Amino acid sequence: MSPAPAPEVISLGCRLNIAESETIRALVAGRDMVVVNSCAVTNAAVKATRVAIRRAKRDRPDAHIVVTGCAAQIDPGSFAAMPEVDRVIGNADKLTSAAWDAPAPVLVSDIMQVRETAPHLVASFSAHARAFVEVQNGCDHRCTFCAIPFGRGPSRSVAAGAVVDRIAGLVDSGHREIVLTGVDLTSYGPDLPGAPTLGHLVERILQHVPTLERLRLSSLDGIEIDDRLFALLTTERRILPHVHLSLQAGDDMILKRMKRRHARADSVALVDRLKTARPDIAIGADLIAGFPTEDAAMFANTLALIDDCQIVHPHIFPYSPRAGTPAARMPQVDPEIRRARAAILRHAGEAARARWLQTLVGTRQDLLVERPGDRGHIGNFAEVLLDEPAIPGDIVRITITGATNDRLRATRELT
Q: Whole-model pTM?
């Protein structure tokens, strides 16, 4: 008798979903199942979830199709109604073995009542060169455009000791780069005894896991980068020179209407301080085009932010009205204008990225090799294509020999 097909986990959206998908993969081992771990950050993300579900059913018609993640948590009924879907499991339940054994076709608990996070802390990331470690989940802020708090629940943090132990285990198993993830990473700590900050957690990781070679932080809210975290980002060489900021817009009125806690000048000043203290830091940012009430002058302020904040890893969204959010009730920008402005932002971001990549030609870098072995990312998160394959998971010394608009070319140095 042939063995049952291996389960498949399709992860959409953020790095936190990638981390949680590894736990799910272990929980469903041995089952003929496809799990779609969904995203709800935009309407496009929800649409992509539906596309993934239908494709999974076409590719594996006999497999059990289960939908989980933020989109499933927020709107379980719509996914349960899809003929391709066998079960829907919410975010509060998906990381427990009991949920995968339960017979209920829809298992979605009240995420707003959840007070714990990361009971799983996955032990292996065998399919990834880097390992993602969840240290925080949920969000207590209420940006007017965002539905994610209703998919993830209140902010909650993982105790530092558990994080350190998990990272030590991942390093011992061969992982040389760790990425700290969370929904609102810089809000780490106030719910824990002593109210530690993200900076305290990073200090503890670096102190107690001296064999960790590379530590990367996922998206940060710039207004919450305190002096301790700033010092670590700019002086600690094991922290990689890549800071991704949740900026969202570059116009003060739009930022107020988004209910963000920073002004445009705060973002520009922060990046100036970061780049002055550590010039090789590469800046990434989330930017939304066409937020309600945005006029041409307001959009121009966001467009100018790409140069003013030296953004080389832009993550651009056209505004997407999410049901139940305050922004969905504001005067809307025409969808065609939203899409056109997003395209302009992408073009400007791609041009800034291309110029930056050219400045790296001729430099020597350390590359974390990723599958299939002929590519990877250097510390500033620039993607590199090697002239000949190396072993995935290795860190190799390279010389950058050329650049295209979106990646670098390199040759490996002989040791």
A: 0.88
